[in-house]
Amino acid sequence: MEAPAPDTAQVSVQIQASSDASIEGVFYCIQLPAEEFSRARAELLSPASGSPAAVSLQPLTEERNEYLRATASGLRITAPARTLEITADAPAEIVIRDDRRDGNYDTQVLFRLMPANPLSGASAKAAFRIRASGEPDLRPVRVRLDPARPGQMWHGFGGNFRIQNEKRDPAVVDYNLANLPLAWSRVDMPWNLWDPDESADPLAQARAGRLHPRVHAAMAMAQRLHRLGLPVIVSAWFPPAWAVLGEIKRPPDEDGPRGNPLNPAKMDRISASITGYFIFLKEKYGVEAAMFSFNESDLGIDVRQTPREHALLLRTLGPDFARHGLATRLLAGDTSDADPVDFVDPVLADPEAARFAGAVSFHSWRGCTQKNLERWLAAARRLNVPLLVGEGSTDAAAWRYSRIFLEPSFAMHEIDLYTRILALAQPASILQWQLTADYSLLAGNGIAGDDGPLRPTQRFWNLKQLASTPHRSFHLPAESDHPLVTAAALADIANGVFTVHLVNRGAARQAVIEGFPDNVAELRAWVTDAARSMQELARVPVQQGRAELKLDSTSFVTLISAPPAR
Questions:
Q1: Which of 186, 195, 291, 305 is the most buried (most CB within 10 A)?
Q2: pLDDT tens-digit map of 350-368
């Protein structure tokens, strides 16, 4: 993608089918927010004979969600506040419809790239020019924080360290550990390699020096993080074949459920296997894991559990850990996204299972609605344990098109999501997926085809800026009155230090922040955007609890007060 002018994007698309696919086709999709385009008018450019010249995008009936299907060289969409013109390099089939996923009525404009059911090797390419015009929203924003109502504690930012690339991971891990202030960590338990043979004793094998190299690498990573003073969560992905029902399929079938359930007849052997792993991790590497989970077991990546089976796991493993002198607890949830809050309900209802829950966890890939985030907060409060975002980011499939990690829009969406999560869910930590070369915050050194020097991206600076929040601060209520500005506030009450994060997704605007205590006189300010990397700005004065500053367009700003004089 190139931007030849401030109002224009030139997009080139190439695609090739790696296998036969039973699908309706492949489309280039532009998604338009319903709040701006739901009553717009779409006008086709150079339409084919018999195609309608224009169509109104008034809300459709419940029975249909398609406005138009026609061939043209492009279209112009005119809404009250803006106009969008999309031109293809050749006539193409165009479909306009509303999305309707999870109550979403955004408008989708689809340009067909490939026909239905493409065969392996089929390819296509296309180019599009997208030109936008309209009136920018320059309204100021007012943010109100309430220091009198401190909520849950923020321990600090965290990261995942699942080692998958022996060539590129080490340099990325070294850089991130040297340059990011962290408070939590999560590593892999290669359970299938720790205990592949049901008839053998994996703990005895390990004590005899017969440890798989990848198991050693995972334990050594845990040891390194422990030496830095970080609590370590250990999560298992791949189970040994003997421990589950059914055949393990990798990759999994596209149709039907993913993963395999644990064999209930072998729970004693399963518990002994996992407990042995943590005994050896403590004996040999000096690490007592803070918590254990099966990764995304609600979805089956790669152990699959029902909510009730998940609660029974806590009832089974928790006492076994305790009998062997392990303080390790279990994560309640650790779900694939924010939608399945109900997955932890049996844990909440079972005092024996709840006793062994060390934290509640969800992953932020999807479903981070206000309702869901508030329900996760309520679940953690009910168990009286911290809430963790066990895997933080926005697009689980982004490894397939990894150049997107360099896009400013991706970086802004990610930090906006994290700021919303802070404000609504009050987590103790967000653990970035990952701080390795996978979904990397760094570019270069061969990552995503970039052979330049290893260097931080905008995403890295966003997260370093977020991680600058003083550890052990309490979340504060913070309300923004502008839909394009997301705000979160925290306070290190003991030291009198206040932090405010502001994500401005639109045009430049003035901001007023109210509610600081009277003894806060000045704020330090930092900004990260496409051109600046946690750049410190002029200090912002605070008078009578009120601060005022300019928020630049599409920027992430952090304000931190100095401790008051004592």
A1: 186
A2: 999 999 999 999 999 999 9
